[in-house]
Amino acid sequence: MGERKHSVLIGSFVVGSLLIVLAGAVVIGSTGFGGQRERVVMVFEGSVKGLTVGAPVALRGVEIGQVTDIQLLLSTDKADIIMQVEAELSERNVLLVGEGMDASSLIPYLIDNGLRAQLNMQSVLTGLLYVQMDFHPDTVVSLPDVTSPHTQVPTIPTELELLRRTLQSIDYARIAQDIGDIAGSLNTLTATEEFQALPGDLQQTLASLAQAGDGLTDAMVALRPEVTTVLAEARGVLQQVNADLPGLASSAGSGLKRLDSALLATEQAMRSIGDQVDPGSPTLYQLNATLKELADASRALQSLARLLEEHPDALLRGRRSNDQ
Fold this sequence. Notes:
This protein has seven helices and seven strands. The chain is an alpha/beta fold. The chain has a seven-stranded mixed beta sheet, with helices on one face. β3 (62-75) and β4 form a beta hairpin. α5 packs across α6 (282-310). The chain is elongated, with a radius of gyration of 55 Å. Keywords: Membrane, Transmembrane, Transmembrane helix. Residues 46-134 form the Mce/MlaD domain. Pfam families: MlaD. This is Paraquat-inducible protein B.
């Protein structure tokens, strides 16, 4: 009986172990770790404090793998230290669309299209880091020479790393020296007699300006009645001229018409006299010249009369360029 019970216990233990192994295989297969995997290596120049083995690797926020190894590489040639991080990528959250592409050729294809790795913070409270992958096709590809059989994914510095580099590149000693020089120059300037006398000179200038302003105000107040009187008289003269202008223009037009009629009668009389004079005599020549001048004068008077009829203000403003 004792041997039979012992055999049953051994059999139960073996069956339980097999069940545990099968359950583990099912769990691993359901989480995707049993799928096809691809190992990659990444090199970071800055500190990787906060990055641990098992940290997630994400592509645009979707977890596609985890960190498997972190090594510090010290170069004896140029005394440089780089951080080599290995990661294992899984297909569990990656669905390939299209044909002719497998996992082995997928990573190089993504790198050619701008895939870059960058360290980001998982939590501000814990300070833990993870590897964030995304596409940055405009960045320069820099692949340090490392000994690894895996595909190397290019890396780019984080925003904090860029800020740290910028702060390190600032020459604080030079800035402090410049500030000291400026402070010394200001002290020298303020210690001069001219600068010490500047407030008093400025106060005198302001007082002079105030006096000048008061004098100008008094002068304007004194001249205001005279200016008002002159403007009122000028306004009255202009109103009188505007009132008399139509009648003046009409009178001038009537006078010009009568003068034109007189010139016409004179011209006719001169022509009658010319008919009775010898054609070859000097008198006829003088009469013809006089008749021509009378005709020109008549035309000028007619033009002036038309101008006054159309523009009575021409007597004051003169003839404009478009009054032809």
